[in-house]
Recover the amino acids of this structure.
């Protein structure tokens, strides 16, 4: 299937929860799949649009990847799994050709004034303007990666990368989306930023992505302080502290299936 290329959006809204992915969603492991980064942004966008409430905020969102995400017309459905006055659980599922391929579950928690006790333990990152352009991600293929601007700290190395990301590509053509959805739509890139090996000899796709936030991020820059640990039997974890230009905003983890390319 040929993906649309004459747009600066990752998705075209078709109505009734249907979305057409564009070249800007094209995956890194296969030209025929969608990259999980824009998919997670789309599902966050759908969750925010589902029965929105100003008194609640997204605290955690987890994504389970049920298989390859074909680069084809996608359908998103949402539902409230646990309604509540101060705590709410919302679910969004993306399907392609009537097959569920990604499930997202988000906890919305009440807004409170906690400025008097607000403390963050995570270390800050150098500002984007203080980091040089980084060519290290050019080993990855696909339309998604090709449009992302990367800046990395000089101390980045295999297994521990600190990088800033931004993209001129907007999320959905035809629907207004938030900074939060756009931010989440870049976080899955952490697995490449912190990679221990290049993608030519080893595969290490993630089967999930879980994001916890202690405040809502702002765009355009997404900061990833990513560390990858690989075990001796094919398992790995990428752990990331998330930043925006105001400082750390949360953390993310990804479970990896590590295997040699044959």
């Amino acid at each position: 299937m040929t993906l649309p290329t004459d747009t600066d959006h990752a998705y075209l809204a078709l109505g009734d929860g249907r979305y057409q992915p564009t070249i800007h969603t094209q995956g890194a492991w296969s030209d025929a799949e969608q990259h999980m980064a824009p998919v997670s942004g789309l599902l966050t966008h759908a969750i925010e649009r589902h029965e929105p409430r100003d008194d609640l905020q997204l605290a955690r969102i987890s994504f389970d990847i049920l298989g390859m995400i074909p680069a084809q017309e996608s359908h998103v459905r949402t539902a409230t799994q646990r309604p509540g006055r101060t705590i709410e659980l919302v679910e969004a599922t993306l399907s392609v050709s009537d097959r569920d391929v990604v499930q997202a579950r988000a906890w919305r928690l009440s807004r409170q004034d906690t400025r008097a006790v607000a403390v963050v333990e995570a270390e800050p990152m150098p500002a984007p303007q203080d980091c040089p352009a980084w060519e290290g991600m050019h080993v990855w293929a696909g339309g998604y990666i090709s449009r992302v601007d990367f800046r990395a700290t000089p101390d980045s190395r295999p297994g521990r990368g600190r990088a800033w990301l931004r993209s001129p590509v907007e999320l959905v053509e035809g629907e207004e989306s938030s900074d939060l959805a756009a931010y989440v739509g870049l976080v899955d890139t952490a697995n490449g930023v912190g990679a221990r090996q290049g993608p030519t000899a080893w595969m290490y796709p993630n089967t999930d992505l879980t994001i916890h936030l202690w405040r809502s991020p702002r765009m355009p820059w997404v900061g990833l302080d990513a560390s990858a640990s690989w075990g001796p039997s094919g398992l790995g974890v990428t752990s990331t502290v998330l930043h925006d230009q105001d400082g750390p905003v949360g953390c993310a983890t990804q479970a990896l299936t590590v295997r040699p390319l044959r």
Observations:
- Helices lie at 36-49, 143-146, 179-187, 190-193.
- The longest helix spans residues 36-49.
